[in-house]
Fold these 2 entries.
Entry 1:
Amino acid sequence: MSDLQTLQKLAEKRRSIYALSDQLPVSNDEIVKLVEHAVLHTPSAFNSQSPRLVILFGEDHNKLWDITEETLKVIVGDDEKFQGTKDKIAGFRAGAGTILFFEDKGVVRNMQEAAPLYADKFPIWAHQTNAMHQYVIWTALASLDIGANLQHYNPVIDQQVAEEWNIDSDWELNAQMVFGAIEQPAGDKEFKPVEDRMKVFGL
């Protein structure tokens, strides 16, 4: 199989997996090395390298979802209405860990000052850079038969997360990626017609 075919197969394999357990097929150290490689080798606009990542295992992973559950319960209020959310969070907690994706606003400000002509674009490019890190890590996890799903409980948990893990005030939470052993694969995926989603000229 060519490198291109391997890459395409991994792109197909990367799915949102919600039925997870904490019995990973690899060590936690291997997960850390995988994330480190992505941080080093994923591109960023103007080589800004603005994403910041935090990996939570074990009790720290559980604590994140405890915080999320407690925060959302206060917002929702009604126990009966909250049950669906509680069940969903229990699914996240059942995983092996969570990767928190942040964006360093200080780096973005510095880039804006250095290139004022593009100042309004740097926050957009920073989010695109963060998304690339998420995709690279998600796909790399899939290559190890590790399932993952991406959540966005920011900004409602931002303050508690920052306090719990002593996060720099310039780090803005962007997403939370839950990962773990795959207990149940993703279902079939529907695709909108490619011809409605792209155009080709000059062939």
Entry 2:
Amino acid sequence: MTVDPYGDERLVELYDEDNRPGADHEYFLKLADGATKVIDFGCGTGLLTRAFVQPGRVVLGVDPSATMLNYARRQPGAEDVTWIDGDAGAVLPAGDADLVVSSGNTMMHITADDFPWVLEALAAALKPGGVLSFESRNPAARAWEQWGPEATYSERDTPAGHLKEWMEVTEVGNGRVVFDAHNVFEDGVDTVYTTTLYFRTVDELRAGLEKAGFGDVEVYGGWHEQQLTDDSRLFVVRATKS
């Protein structure tokens, strides 16, 4: 098992290829219009982070994976971003950011015990009227039921050699899903990293945000601000610091 879920450089180098910019990046970049300071919380390889860079704007990328950040720092344009190695505790409570974004599963990695103080830390980084936006999966869609070995097994050729990969869910309960991601390169070693995701309902997300000092909480069913329904697989959350 690896402590850093992206501790294998070979996997990190594949991350941007597997997570190309799409409607999510377009949504977050549009939110940044007019912003002079943007924080990308859980920035990973910094693909979205670097897209925020423009003259006169301060951009910070925060992530607890040293492997991810080391890769991010080597990419073109990385010198225009301030990279911070750590979790929400490393985000200064400066109260001057216009926007904090959190893409992918970042907010779903946060435990129930940590969720309140993480939201408070992000609120403290924002100026009054600043915006926090992130995505989360709808627990009612039960996405984990599609994460078994048969549904997720694949093989492909990569710059690091032939790769076999699959997922296996090991635990489900109380909104908490644990799964193993298997990665086997040509050396035959099965590099397994375990991920725990916390699925939250809209009511739980609203309550947490409001308690942390956010108002005007909006939750959409997709990146084009689709109306939220019971069948929505994704929650796109946007909240304003009161």
